């Protein structure tokens, strides 16, 4: 995950929306990462964390719609704050208007 974060930082647009997903949460008996550890890691990177199971349809919808909502909010903030279009103001999130 540290490598993926580095890769995103180096090669993706500034301010790109990220989230951390622990998949296969239906297989509790084979858990490799404790939830606390994953939550802590997500917090360190300032991103959301979901545990999902594609097999059992747990949190998949929630993870994708939250990501979509965050992207939408971020892009509407850019418009409102007059970010100047593509390339400008990236990676400088502003607080949502009241
Ligand atoms: C960023 O992209 C370049 C070119 O594809 C690649 O060589 C480099 O390893 C990437 N950086 C990271 C941290 O993945």
What does the model show?
The structure is a single chain. The chain is mainly alpha-helical. The chain has a single domain (2-81), classed as P-loop containing nucleotide triphosphate hydrolases (Rossmann fold, 3-Layer(aba) Sandwich), CATH 3.40.50. The protein is built from three helices and two strands. The protein has helices at 2-11, 35-45, 60-80; strands at 19-22, 48-51. The chain has a two-stranded parallel ribbon with strand order 1-2. Strand 1, helix 2 (35-45) and strand 2 form a beta-alpha-beta unit. The mean pLDDT is 88.
Number of separate structural domains:
1
DSSP strand count: 2
Catalogue the unreliable spans: none
Q: What is the CATH class?
A: Alpha Beta
Summed up, the helix count is 3
Beta fraction: 5-15%
Mean pLDDT: 88
Helices and strands, in order, run as HEHEH
Q: Termini separation (Å)?
A: 34 Å
Overall geometry comes to globular
Give Rg in angstroms. Answer: 16 Å
Tell me the strand order in the biggest sheet: 1-2
Please give the share of residues in helix. Answer: 40-55%
Biggest β-sheet description: 2 strands, parallel
Secondary-structure content class? mainly alpha
CATH topology: Rossmann fold
Going by CATH, the homologous superfamily would be P-loop containing nucleotide triphosphate hydrolases
Second-tier CATH architecture: 3-Layer(aba) Sandwich
Identify every distinct bound molecule in the structure, by name, code or SMILES: 2-acetamido-2-deoxy-beta-D-glucopyranose
């Amino acid at each position: 995950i540290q490598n993926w974060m580095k890769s995103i930082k180096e090669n993706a647009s500034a301010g790109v929306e990220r989230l951390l997903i622990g998949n296969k949460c239906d297989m509790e008996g084979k858990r490799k990462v404790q939830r606390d550890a994953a939550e802590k890691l997500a917090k360190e990177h300032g991103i959301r964390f979901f545990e999902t199971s594609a097999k059992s349809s747990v949190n998949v919808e929630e993870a994708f719609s939250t990501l979509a909502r965050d992207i939408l909010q971020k892009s509407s903030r850019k418009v409102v704050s007059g970010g100047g279009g593509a390339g400008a103001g990236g990676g400088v999130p502003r607080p949502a208007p009241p």
